[in-house]
Amino acid sequence: MRRRLAAGNWKMNGTRQNLPEIAALAAAHPVAAVDILICPPATLLAQAATLAEGSAVTIGAQDCHPAPSGAHTGDIAAPMLADAGARAVILGHSERRADHAETSALVAAKTRAAHDAGLLAILCLGETLAQREDAQTIAVVTEQLRASLPDSATATNTVLAYEPVWAIGTGLTPSAAQIAEVHGVLRACIAEHLGAPEADQMRLLYGGSVKPDNAAAIFAIADVDGALVGGASLRARDFAPIIAALGSA
Ligand code: PEP
Questions:
Q1: More confident: 8 or 249
Q2: How close is the Cα of 93 to the center of ligand 1, in Å?
Q3: Residue with the nearest Cα to atom 2 of ligand 1?
Q4: Closest listed residue to residue 223, CA positions, set 191, 193, 167, 108
Q5: How many CB atoms lie within 10 A of CB 1?
Q6: Full domain range(s) for residue 144
Q7: Is the distance from CB of 221 to CB of 181 less than 8 angstroms?
Q8: Could you tell me if 242 and 6 are in contact, meaning their C-beta atoms sit under 8 angstroms apart?
Q9: What string of DSSP letters covers 127-176?
Q10: How far is CA 52 from CA 10, 29, 82, 136, in A?
Q11: Which of the residues are catalytic?
Q12: Model confidence at 204, in pLDDT bands (50, 70, 90)?
C-alpha cells in the first residue's frame, strides 16, 4: 500500500508574510491520512520547518547542489537543506532543466546527494508540447527516468513526479488516459531499473495545473499516488481541498 503524497511547490514565491499559510495548513492537519509537503523558497525553509513541527506537514526544498559542500557561490548543499529542517527536495523540475540547462546526468547527481543527506528526492520528468505532438512522450520520459535515476534510489527515498511541461501553470491537463499511460509505463520502467518490489512501492505523482476542481478526477486515475502542485499550493484555502480529495481517493 503506497502512502499518498500531496506536495506543494511554491517556486520563487513567498516571503515571511506568507508563512501563515503554512501555519494554517499545519494547524488544520495535526495528523493526516496522506503525506503533506510544502516546498517554499530556501529563504523560508527554517522558519517553515519550525512552524510545521509536530504537525502532519513536512517541509522540502526546490533544488540542491550535487556536492556536500565547497566553493559554489550561491548554491545550497543537500546536508544544509536537511540542517534547515527540510525532509525532501524537488529535483529535475522542468523549470530548472530549462532555466539552468540542467541535464539528466546532473539531476541524477543531485538526486544521489539528496539520498546521501537523508532527504526524500522528488524527481520530475515530463515532455514538452512539441514532444507530445510528435508522439515522443513515452520515449522522452523513459529516457529521462533512465538518465536521472541514480542506483541509490529506492521506494523509500524517491518519489517520481510526471509533469508534462505544457500542463505546468497553463490550466491545461492531459486526459485521464494519457496520465494513466505514462504512469503505467513509468512503473514498468522502475521495475526494470530497481526491481518489481521497489516499483510496486514507489510513489508516482502527477503535476501540472492540479486544482481543487480537478483533483478528485486526477486522483482516481490508476497509478496516481498524489500530486505535485504549484500555483494551488500557495494558499491553504486552495491546497486544503486538494489534500482532502487525495485523502478520500
Ligand atoms: C509545478 O510547477 O510543479 C506545477 C505543477 O505547477 P502548477 O500546479 O502551477 O501547474
A1: 8
A2: 10
A3: 230
A4: 191
A5: 5
A6: 5-248
A7: no
A8: yes
A9: --HHHHHTT-HHHHHHHHHHHH--TT--TTTEEEEE--GGGTTTS----H
A10: 16, 10, 15, 41
A11: 93, 163
A12: very high
Res. 51: pLDDT tops 90: yes
Which residues lie below 8 Å from residue 177, measured CB to CB, with a gap of 6+?
none
Ligand 1 centroid to Cα of residue 71, in Å, is 32
97 contacts 140 by C-beta, under 8 angstroms: no
Identify which of 11, 165, 168 to mutate to test ligand 1's pocket (most ligand atoms within 8 A of the CB).
168
pLDDT digits (tens, 9 = 90+) for 56-110: 999 999 999 999 999 999 999 999 999 999 999 999 999 999 999 999 999 999 9
Q: Say which residues have a Cβ less than 8 Å from residue 19's Cβ, sequence separation at least 6.
A: 44, 47, 48, 51
Q: Which residues line ligand 1 (CB under 6 A)?
A: 9, 163, 168-169, 207-210, 228-232
Q: For residue 227, is pLDDT > 90?
A: yes
* Whether residue 158 has pLDDT greater than 90: yes
CATH code of 34's domain: 3.20.20.70
C-alpha cell at 175: 486526459
Specify the number of domains making up the chain: 1
Using CA positions, which residue lies closest to atom 1 of ligand 1? 230
Residue 207 CA: nearest ligand 1 atom is 5
Spatial CB neighbours of 150, under 8 Å, sequence gap ≥ 6? 108, 109, 111, 112, 115
- What is the model's pLDDT at position 87? 98
**For residue 193, what pLDDT is reported?**
93
Between CA 38 and CA 49, with CA 43 as vertex, the angle to 5 degrees is 45
**The pLDDT value given to residue 76:** 98
